[in-house]
Amino acid sequence: MSRFIITRPRLFAAATALAVTGALGGTAFAADSPADNVGESSPRTSSAPAVSALPVDAPRFAVIDQNGQVVRGSLGVTAGLTSAQNVEVLFDRDIRGCAYTATIGGKATDVPSPAFITVAQRGGKVNGVFVAIRNSDSTKTTRPFHLTVTC
Question: Quick one: which of 86, 77, 29, 22 has its CA closest to 51?
């Protein structure tokens, strides 16, 4: 009869392998698609520095400046202004089953003027959020904002 002895090095190796498998298991990469919400071209994007994948159910967030650029955010987040001056924010996984919440907000201690902000899933991109910002008279505008994606 053989006995299996668990030593600290074996336990550490098993825990490390499980953690890496779990972290990489939820990572997805989506290809860009020409389809979008309002027939506008995809923007040039900026991104936050990526270090490693977030867990699948971790909340994602982005702080975007008035030029559609990422100020800070979750690992792998990118953003940019579209040709129609709306904002596209892309995350590191499929977020179709998630809730999107955005609010006009400064990137630091600045306080932007009020505006209306709406969000929707980005047409043709399973990892994207479409953000439109309007003045009180419904004209398009750009403002810094904060976006949270909760799954």
Answer: 77
All residues at 6 or more sequence positions from 120 whose CB lies less than 8 Å from its CB, including other chains = 37, 100, 129, 130
Q: Torsion angle, CA of 97/149/53/122, rounded to 10 degrees?
A: 70
Q: What is the mean pLDDT of the chain?
A: 77
Kindly tell me if the per-residue pLDDT of 82 is higher than 80. yes
Check residue 81 and give its pLDDT: 96
Cα separation, 90 vs 93, whole angstroms: 9
Instruction: Choose among 120, 103, 112, 95: nearest CA to 38.
Output: 120
- Count, in order, helices (H) and strands (E) of the chain: 1, 9
Q: What is the pLDDT of residues 1-23, one digit of tens each?
A: 555 455 555 544 444 444 433 33
> Which residue in 86, 124, 19 sits closest to 147, CA to CA?
86
